[in-house]
Specification:
Radius of gyration: 33 Å
Protein name: CHY-type domain-containing protein
Shape: rod-shaped
Keywords: Metal-binding, Zinc, Zinc-finger
Largest sheet: 4 strands, antiparallel
GO molecular function, one term: zinc ion binding
Organism: Collybiopsis confluens
Distance between the termini: 85 Å
GO biological process, one term: protein import into mitochondrial intermembrane space
Length: 125
């Protein structure tokens, strides 16, 4: 599984070392030599698991599909990126579950718990 391209549809066979890689960056990470350029590329479709070759000098738009299963393997690459997300409801719509710790909550007030000023005011007749 390629960590550089999330939606990779084919593996490529490196002409220099004859090994299969999901992308050129995967080859660069695992091997010490550079990826050799070639006119004819070998691909392995990840959908039907069949290999095929394409001549890169006469590559056309119709060559973007696997010849065995018509899987469209030339897609816009989706690279992984960090995303910050919030689970749950949107707080702007329903903020009942939020508590602001910066505001001191008022204590429950009853006749049994009075501050000294209130008690003095009740005793003054």
């Amino acid at each position: 599984m390629c960590k550089h391209i999330l939606n990779v549809q084919v593996s490529i066979r490196a002409p220099c070392c004859k090994q299969w890689f999901d992308c050129a960056e995967c080859h660069a990470e695992k091997e010490t030599h550079k990826l050799a350029k070639t006119i004819e590329m070998a691909f392995l479709c990840k959908k039907c698991k069949k290999a095929f070759r394409k001549d890169m000098t006469t590559y056309e738009e119709s060559d973007e599909f696997c010849p065995h299963c018509d899987n469209h393997y030339v897609l816009e690459a989706k690279a992984p990126r960090a995303v910050v997300g919030v689970e749950g409801e949107d707080a702007r719509v329903d903020a009942r579950m939020l508590k602001d710790d910066r505001v001191k909550a008022k204590e429950n007030h009853s006749i049994f718990t009075m501050d000294p000023d209130e008690e003095a005011a009740l005793l003054d007749f």
